[in-house]
Amino acid sequence: MSFENFCIVSQGNLDFKFQKIKIAIEDIVMLQADSNYTHVYLSDGKRFIFARTIKLFEDMLKDYSFERIHKTFIINCDHLLGYDSKTESLVLSNNLKANLSRRRKYQLKRQLSVLN
Protein backbone atom coordinates (compact mmCIF):
# COMPACT_ATOMS: atom_id res chain seq x y z
CA MET A 1 0.00 0.00 0.00
CA SER A 2 1.57 3.28 -1.06
CA PHE A 3 0.96 6.60 0.65
CA GLU A 4 3.60 8.70 -1.12
CA ASN A 5 1.01 10.26 -3.44
CA PHE A 6 -1.32 10.99 -0.53
CA CYS A 7 0.86 12.06 2.39
CA ILE A 8 4.50 12.56 3.36
CA VAL A 9 5.85 11.91 6.85
CA SER A 10 8.60 14.44 7.52
CA GLN A 11 10.05 16.17 10.57
CA GLY A 12 7.32 14.86 12.88
CA ASN A 13 4.47 16.00 10.62
CA LEU A 14 1.97 14.43 8.28
CA ASP A 15 1.95 16.61 5.18
CA PHE A 16 -1.09 15.90 3.00
CA LYS A 17 -0.19 16.88 -0.53
CA PHE A 18 -3.52 17.72 -2.15
CA GLN A 19 -5.43 19.06 0.86
CA LYS A 20 -2.58 21.38 1.89
CA ILE A 21 -2.94 20.21 5.49
CA LYS A 22 0.00 19.67 7.85
CA ILE A 23 -0.62 17.82 11.11
CA ALA A 24 1.97 17.40 13.85
CA ILE A 25 2.13 13.70 14.73
CA GLU A 26 2.40 14.51 18.44
CA ASP A 27 -0.99 16.31 18.23
CA ILE A 28 -2.83 13.20 17.00
CA VAL A 29 -4.77 11.63 19.85
CA MET A 30 -6.64 8.87 18.04
CA LEU A 31 -7.60 7.53 14.62
CA GLN A 32 -10.95 5.85 14.05
CA ALA A 33 -11.91 3.75 11.05
CA ASP A 34 -15.26 4.24 9.36
CA SER A 35 -15.37 1.85 6.40
CA ASN A 36 -12.92 3.31 3.84
CA TYR A 37 -12.65 6.60 5.75
CA THR A 38 -10.46 7.50 8.71
CA HIS A 39 -11.30 10.10 11.35
CA VAL A 40 -8.21 11.76 12.85
CA TYR A 41 -8.76 13.39 16.26
CA LEU A 42 -6.30 16.06 17.43
CA SER A 43 -5.39 17.31 20.90
CA ASP A 44 -6.88 20.76 20.20
CA GLY A 45 -10.31 19.23 19.50
CA LYS A 46 -10.14 19.39 15.71
CA ARG A 47 -11.13 16.38 13.64
CA PHE A 48 -10.24 15.54 10.05
CA ILE A 49 -11.79 12.91 7.82
CA PHE A 50 -9.73 11.30 5.07
CA ALA A 51 -10.93 8.95 2.34
CA ARG A 52 -8.26 6.36 3.14
CA THR A 53 -8.29 3.20 5.23
CA ILE A 54 -6.91 3.09 8.74
CA LYS A 55 -4.33 0.53 7.58
CA LEU A 56 -2.63 3.23 5.49
CA PHE A 57 -2.27 5.43 8.57
CA GLU A 58 -1.08 2.47 10.65
CA ASP A 59 1.75 1.95 8.15
CA MET A 60 2.66 5.65 8.18
CA LEU A 61 2.76 5.88 11.98
CA LYS A 62 4.49 2.57 12.75
CA ASP A 63 7.71 4.32 13.86
CA TYR A 64 5.91 6.49 16.43
CA SER A 65 4.14 5.73 19.71
CA PHE A 66 0.88 4.57 18.13
CA GLU A 67 -0.83 1.29 18.94
CA ARG A 68 -3.63 -0.51 17.10
CA ILE A 69 -6.01 -1.49 19.92
CA HIS A 70 -9.06 -2.50 17.90
CA LYS A 71 -9.91 -3.03 14.26
CA THR A 72 -11.36 0.48 14.24
CA PHE A 73 -8.99 2.34 16.60
CA ILE A 74 -5.36 3.42 16.68
CA ILE A 75 -4.29 5.50 19.67
CA ASN A 76 -1.31 7.68 20.46
CA CYS A 77 0.08 6.17 23.67
CA ASP A 78 1.38 9.61 24.70
CA HIS A 79 -2.25 10.77 25.09
CA LEU A 80 -3.39 7.75 27.10
CA LEU A 81 -4.88 8.79 30.45
CA GLY A 82 -6.40 5.59 31.80
CA TYR A 83 -8.72 2.64 31.46
CA ASP A 84 -12.49 2.61 32.01
CA SER A 85 -13.31 -0.88 33.30
CA LYS A 86 -17.08 -0.37 32.97
CA THR A 87 -16.96 0.18 29.21
CA GLU A 88 -13.64 -1.66 28.73
CA SER A 89 -12.26 1.28 26.79
CA LEU A 90 -9.18 3.48 27.00
CA VAL A 91 -9.56 7.10 28.10
CA LEU A 92 -7.54 9.60 26.07
CA SER A 93 -6.97 13.36 25.98
CA ASN A 94 -10.02 15.57 25.22
CA ASN A 95 -12.33 13.03 26.92
CA LEU A 96 -12.04 10.69 23.94
CA LYS A 97 -12.61 6.98 24.46
CA ALA A 98 -11.45 4.12 22.28
CA ASN A 99 -12.78 0.56 22.43
CA LEU A 100 -10.26 -2.11 23.23
CA SER A 101 -10.56 -5.53 21.59
CA ARG A 102 -10.44 -8.58 23.86
CA ARG A 103 -7.42 -10.03 22.12
CA ARG A 104 -5.41 -6.81 22.24
CA LYS A 105 -6.45 -6.14 25.84
CA TYR A 106 -4.27 -9.00 27.03
CA GLN A 107 -1.36 -7.95 24.82
CA LEU A 108 -1.54 -4.36 26.08
CA LYS A 109 -1.96 -5.46 29.69
CA ARG A 110 1.63 -6.63 29.62
CA GLN A 111 2.84 -3.37 28.05
CA LEU A 112 0.79 -0.79 29.91
CA SER A 113 0.37 -0.64 33.66
CA VAL A 114 -2.98 1.24 33.46
CA LEU A 115 -4.90 -1.90 32.49
CA ASN A 116 -5.67 -3.71 35.74
Automatic annotation (TrEMBL):
A GO MF label: DNA binding
Keyword Cytoplasm among UniProt keywords: no
Keywords tagged on the record: DNA-binding
Annotated Pfam families: LytTR
Record keyword RNA-binding present: no
InterPro entries: LytR-like, LytTR_DNA-bd_dom
Residue stretches making up the HTH LytTR-type domain: 21-114
SMART domains per the UniProt record, alphabetical: LytTR
Name the record gives this protein: LytTR family DNA-binding domain-containing protein
Organism encoding this protein: Flectobacillus roseus
